[in-house]
Amino acid sequence: MQSISLLPNSSNVDSNTGSKSEPLRAQFWSRFALTELNHSEWEALCDGCGSCCLIKYIDEDENGNVDEELVEYTDVTCQLMDCATGYCSHYATRQEYVPDCIQLTMDNLPNMMWLPSHCAYKRLYKGQSLPSWHLLLTQDAVVTQHEMRAANVGVAGRCVSETSMSDEEMETRVINWINP
Ligand code: SF4
Ligand code: SF4
Q1: What residue numbers bound the domain in which 82 lies?
Q2: For 131-150, what is each residue's pLDDT tens digit?
């Protein structure tokens, strides 16, 4: 079982870390390889769905390869998740509270194929396109939010905290609305 997180949303990331913003190049997601993206472009790929902050059951082989067919998500989140908004409540300082929260990088992405099938990082890594509702395509946050809801994507309002939850109870909370 792993509780892993990445980049909840690009606006949070920049405001919390103070990272310098670099310009987003036009259509960068289709014109450049993931390894060629600048910091801002990399972060702009995250749609903020929060799925990666859910507790999940993962089978890995000795090389760290994940059998995607066997990944099971629960609706139980890491203790720092704000379940109402779907965002990390202490993103900038999260590792003080959750040391095993992982930053998604190009180096570890190949071993993170447990990510949901709609996740832009996983999709681009696999040579697929961005999901049609992605903000980079719609350029309209309201439209994206509406379409994400219609596509059943996002944890806001439908997750519970791991705090005080037993392993036994967690095992009963496997969901089927996220597919790796
Ligand atoms: S610490 Fe924050 S970003 Fe990391 S898994 Fe928990 S909620 Fe997600
Ligand atoms: S699953 Fe992918 S798109 Fe969703 S929050 Fe995590 S990194 Fe971002």
Answers
A1: 10-171
A2: 999 999 999 999 999 999 99
